Amino acid sequence: MSEQASAGSVLRIDGVHKWFGDTPVLRGIDIEVARHEVVALIGASGSGKSTLLKTINLLEGVDDGQIHLGETDITDPRIDADSIRGRIGVVFQHYNLFPHMNVLNNVTLASRQVFGVKRAAAEKRGLELLERIGLADKAREYPDRLSGGQQQRVAIARAIATDPELLLLDEITSALDPQLVGEVLDLVHELKAGGSTILMATHEMSFARRVADRVVFLKGGKIIESGTPQQIFDAPREEETREFLSRLRDPLA
């Protein structure tokens, strides 16, 4: 790992291991994400993608290895987890909007409660974001009045409202009806164009090809292969990568 690459890193994962009981879930993960880079994690269910994202957001501890957010070792047990989470935006597959709050309050909650932004300033920023994602007219609606795609776009707006250093996206389209997937993926593409730094777990291979700068294939908690989308999808070097992609193209193979 070069010093130049490390200096520009938003996220650096070095030799991370994680066990659940006697079961290894992450086995020596090394990943570096540069500023403004989009990295896609692909792999079958149970490959370790979601667990890796949870260790970065400190929802799960690691058993060995280190994770740095910028210059901060976030695996240091003395770290203030809430302060680290305040630097990371996270979007889950099931929206996780607060049902008792309207859309605008959902988007502005962290700005107001965690960062102490005055309500007027937070709401101005929130309305700008809702305008950007085409939902300004839904600002006073409650989540149950929105479609799944609209709720997920609100969840993304909430995640970026505090200008996080890193955005984690965990299978954000898996709970959506197919006709709603496109609008969410278009928004992520806009975030990339705007310079966001993103680490995402996805099962949408066409989306990973379109938006990612780098694709990382995990199997059994290990990185099998990492490369550009073109290299991974068109000319994978590893047999396990080729098998995984061929099964996606032909599930009955």
Automatic annotation (TrEMBL):
<dbReference type="Pfam" id="PF00005">
    <property type="entry name" value="ABC_tran"/>
</dbReference>
<dbReference type="InterPro" id="IPR030679">
    <property type="entry name" value="ABC_ATPase_HisP-typ"/>
</dbReference>
<dbReference type="GO" id="GO:0016887">
    <property type="term" value="F:ATP hydrolysis activity"/>
</dbReference>
<dbReference type="InterPro" id="IPR017871">
    <property type="entry name" value="ABC_transporter-like_CS"/>
</dbReference>
<protein>
    <submittedName>
        <fullName>Amino acid ABC transporter ATP-binding protein (PAAT family)</fullName>
    </submittedName>
</protein>
<keyword id="KW-0472">Membrane</keyword>
<keyword id="KW-0547">Nucleotide-binding</keyword>
<dbReference type="GO" id="GO:0005524">
    <property type="term" value="F:ATP binding"/>
</dbReference>
<comment type="similarity">
    <text>Belongs to the ABC transporter superfamily.</text>
</comment>
<keyword id="KW-0029">Amino-acid transport</keyword>
<keyword id="KW-0813">Transport</keyword>
<dbReference type="InterPro" id="IPR003593">
    <property type="entry name" value="AAA+_ATPase"/>
</dbReference>
<keyword id="KW-0067">ATP-binding</keyword>
<dbReference type="InterPro" id="IPR027417">
    <property type="entry name" value="P-loop_NTPase"/>
</dbReference>
<dbReference type="GO" id="GO:0015424">
    <property type="term" value="F:ABC-type amino acid transporter activity"/>
</dbReference>
<dbReference type="InterPro" id="IPR050086">
    <property type="entry name" value="MetN_ABC_transporter-like"/>
</dbReference>
<keyword id="KW-1003">Cell membrane</keyword>
<dbReference type="GO" id="GO:0005886">
    <property type="term" value="C:plasma membrane"/>
</dbReference>
<feature type="domain" description="ABC transporter">
    <location>
        <begin position="11"/>
        <end position="245"/>
    </location>
</feature>
<dbReference type="InterPro" id="IPR003439">
    <property type="entry name" value="ABC_transporter-like_ATP-bd"/>
</dbReference>
